[in-house]
Amino acid sequence: MAAALEDLVIFAGGASRELAQQVAAKLKIEPANAHLRRFSDGEHWVELLDNVRGKSVLVMQSVCPPVNDNLMELVLMLDAVRRSSAFDVVAMAPYLGYSRQDRRPRSVRVPISARVVADMLGGTGISRLLTMDLHSEQIQGFYGAPVDNMYAMPVLTGDIAQREDGAGGGDGVIVAPDVGGVIRARAFASNLGMDLAILDKRRPRANVAKVMNIIGDVGGKNCFIVDDIVDTANTLCEAAGALKAAGALRVFAYCTHAVLSGGAAARVAESPLDELVVTDTIPLLPESRECGKIRSLTVASILAETVSRVYRQGSLSSLFS
């Protein structure tokens, strides 16, 4: 990438305005201005209010609820930048919606929605996509442009290790919510010097999970469930109850993306879960902000450092190794 960081222009979509301002501040860049609104029929209108001709532009927007509106806004902003003669266009979607729909299970007649989104974003002419904690890392192969998948683990493990209540001591246990999350959980456990446990669950239908077995010793220990996404929180609440029934002292959950749909905040508040810690890749809704059991950490520093390294030709892998 030939453009220098000093010449970078940053636009923020409506879903990531606050996070984008934090990232821009850390990069010592003044965010650019765009007029975003909707017509009475629901169509989106995007107008860039700053000149981007010949400049390198980064558009930041999480594809979070309302997913379709935020996705369309991102696509239109990217197209507006390209048609305004920018030198290159980089998309940053801290949370990339539709990433869980990455395959056709059992060859049923469904779309591969993650690929459709990749085609939409790729069609705007982006030169790179920056995202965080992809649900399925193979999604990177759907894009013709490079995809840099960042990780929130440094922020989350740092918070666990420095907890004021002392729960993050070496006698804690990192818990994988399912077999698919073992690699992530093992990395957390290795980083923190903790033991690892695994929940064996069955999912009879979407957003419904039942814990069947706990693999590992959790008796008398503080447990930390780690996952990439918390949606309805059914799985976390079910897991917290199972872990406490098995003798766990306290149960905390650390998740990167706080989708928190379908009454999740109320569910967390009433559950055996002691605390849910998330990041600001998705802005919390009022009911989640008001829940005493939900706490948010910022990933602005990681995003800013990633952007800095991309534009200064630095290594990204060393940032997370």
Write out key terms for the chains shown.
321 residues, 30% helix, globular, 7-stranded mixed beta sheet
Structure, described:
There is one protein chain. By secondary structure, the protein is of the alpha/beta class. Helix content is 30%, strand content 26%. The protein contains 10 helices and 14 strands. The protein has helices at residues 17-26, 67-83, 113-122, 153-161, 182-192, 234-245, 264-269, 286-289, 300-311, 317-320; strands at 8-12, 34-38, 44-48, 56-60, 88-93, 128-132, 147-150, 173-176, 195-205, 208-215, 222-230, 250-258, 275-279, 294-297. The strands form 3 sheets. It has a 7-stranded mixed beta sheet, with helices on both faces. Strands 1-4-5-6-7 form a 5-stranded parallel beta sheet, sandwiched between helices. A two-stranded antiparallel ribbon has the order 2-3. A hairpin with a 5-residue loop joins strand 2 and strand 3 (44-48). The chain starts with 7 loop residues before the first strand and ends with a helix.
Taking all residues together, what is the mean pLDDT?
94
Give the helix/strand class. alpha/beta
Estimate percent helicity.
25-40%
The best one-word shape is globular
Give me the number of helical elements: 10
What is the terminal separation in angstroms? 23 Å
**Strand content bin:** 25-35%
The strand line-up of the biggest sheet is 10-9-8-11-12-13-14
Number of strands: 14
| Low-pLDDT stretches | none
List SSEs in N-to-C order: EHEEEHEHEEHEHEEEHEHEHEHH
Q: Outline the biggest β-sheet.
A: 7 strands, mixed
- What is the radius of gyration? 20 Å
